[in-house]
Hints:
The chain is built from 14 helices and nine strands. A hairpin with a 5-residue loop joins strand 4 and strand 5. The protein has three domains: 2-72; 82-156, Transferase Creatine Kinase, Chain A, domain 1 (Orthogonal Bundle); 184-395, Glutamine synthetase/guanido kinase, catalytic domain (Creatine Kinase, Chain A, domain 2, 2-Layer Sandwich), CATH 3.30.590.10. 34% of the residues are buried. It has 396 residues and is α+β, with helices and mostly antiparallel strands.
Amino acid sequence: MFARTTARVAALGTQRGIATRAAPRHGSYALGAGAVAAVGLCLAAPTLADSRPTVYGILGEVNSRLQKIEKALGLEWVEELEAIGAVTKSNPGNLAMKHFDEAYFASLSDELKVRLIAVVRSGFENPDSGMGAYAIQPTDYDDLAPFMDAVIRDYHKVPAGKKHVNNWSLAGVEGLPADGLLDLTKLGLGETSMRVRTGRNLSKFPMPGGMTQADRVNMEATMVEAFAKLIADPAYGGEYVSLTPGHANQISEQRYQQLVKQHIMFKDMADDPYLASAGIASDWPHGRGCYISADKAFIVWVGEEDHLRIMSMKKGTHLNEVFDRLSTAIETMNTLADFAYSDTYGVVTSCPTNLGTGESPTAAACPPPPAAACCRLLPAAAGCAGVSAERARRRI
């Protein structure tokens, strides 16, 4: 269509003495008969001899005018709104579609309309989504509050007006030992495999779904400086490995596959349709990497669903130890990273299901043989306040 239109415009241009330089190969416009007529109108307009329009310039102007007409007629988001309406009917459990209000959408500025569609795109492109929304900017939870708040409170079953407050202190918490020591031996358990995972995002960058390749690389560079503090600390040590082409810490494909096999590194997210639709899986492998402590018990994924996925692991009997190591590292990294927080929802994460602490703790207790074959899994937050266990298995 572009070639045919260009030929017709060139012919008209020859009749009127208008310059018709060849348009670049990458130019592409889907123009119908009405657009061709509009081109004729553009050509009919008088022009100065020293600023004669080119074919490419004319087509660009026509495309711009068509977009303005669509906007004036309210046709700008027709396809997206139709998809949202269809999913709302077919999948009522999709929370983002359930709470999408067209009247609220129509009231937004052009910029916020773009952002809200980006937030819910994964939901209407993947109708079976449970949540169906991913924040694109750290401020989405505030800037799109009427929509986000409804989705969040529906999922987390939290009453309107209630705020989340992060506090690592156990002081005054009802039901805990007076000394604050969470000793699993008092529950009749022996050595236990404990893990706590949390997410963090840097406030000065878009969320993973809204990042450009340059954003991802720059975010990684910021975190390399923060990881240098952990590496210099004997309690952590270790190394940072990167998948970014040309990075000083780039590792080979063989080393990467080895780390994936050891469940230390995460896989390419392109196979996850939810993350792909949200833009989170884009630009692989740029800006992706992993901090690994010397004892391999403290790991930070860079560039996954959140800017950072932080994991602290330990075999022992005192739960405090795994949380204390996590909190100390977060405080150290935050001196350079400046993590995003919401006064209402706590830790800001890509998926609203992880808001609050962003944590997903698990503990597996194995009694001595032969009963070890029947390891018990202690209550875990994964799957009730965070990413589902099934999705977690797909990505590690």
